[in-house]
Amino acid sequence: MIQLQLFAGTVTWIGAVVIVLAAVAVAILAIRLRQPALALFGLLPVGFGILALAFQVNVADPPVLPAIVALGLAALGILGGNPLTVWVLGRAAKGDVDSGTHGGILVPAETASGAKSATKTQEVLRGGTWIGYLERAAVIGAIVVGHFEIIAAVIAIKGLGRFSELDAPEARERFIIGTLVSMIWAALCGALIVLPAVFSS
User: Fold this and answer.
1) How many CB atoms lie within 10 A of CB 75?
2) Could you state, in order of their start, the residue ranges of all structural domains in the chain?
3) How does pLDDT run across 8-50, given as a tens digit for each residue?
4) Which residue of 42, 118, 142, 195 has the lowest C-beta tally within 10 Å?
5) Three-class SS state of 104
6) 125-160 confidence digits (pLDDT tens)
7) What is the distance in angstroms between the CA of the first residue and the CA of the last residue of the chain?
8) How far is Cα 81 from Cα 27, in angstroms, rounded to an integer?
9) Between β-strands 98-99 and 116-124, what pairing exists: parallel, antiparallel or unpaired?
10) Which chain regions cross the lipid bilayer (predicted)?
11) Could you give the CA distance from residue 84 to residue 185 in angstroms, rounded to a whole number?
12) Kind and range of the H or E run holding 62
């Protein structure tokens, strides 16, 4: 009986490893091919994980496999958040915002008098991709170590760092939506790393 439970647990964990690593691979493809809709595949392992927690699925833990799933979820949280955020921002903007050459967006530039120029643009929110990776890594790390105040510090640092660029409504909208999607995704992945241990104890 114990061997059967261990076998069933091993098969379940191998399935989880395959699904999570496949989602990470698809997220990387989504980034490389600039096809953010592919990132929706990442919802699959997160959804399965939430269902497993909701229904309190309890399987035997073979050595190593839970750690591989946890590392895969961390990678999915960090990497998969990029195309997912881009996809949501694309739905929110509906093509109204032009992308800049450095990862930001183009907004009307201010003239010397402080008015918005009708012809000149400036790029704001540059480097958002890399900031997003770091932000998601910090959120997942904060959840794993149980220090949620780190998340508040990340939000404060990001807000202060971007404050001067948030004059344009397009920039504010992109900043708020992008930050929320990115952090919620990272928090979901981080929670799936730690909650199984909480429920099993």
Assistant:
1) 19
2) 2-200
3) 777 888 888 999 999 999 999 999 999 999 989 999 999 999 9
4) 118
5) coil
6) 777 889 999 999 999 999 999 999 999 999 999 989
7) 22
8) 8
9) unpaired
10) 6-31, 38-58, 64-89, 137-157, 177-199
11) 8
12) none
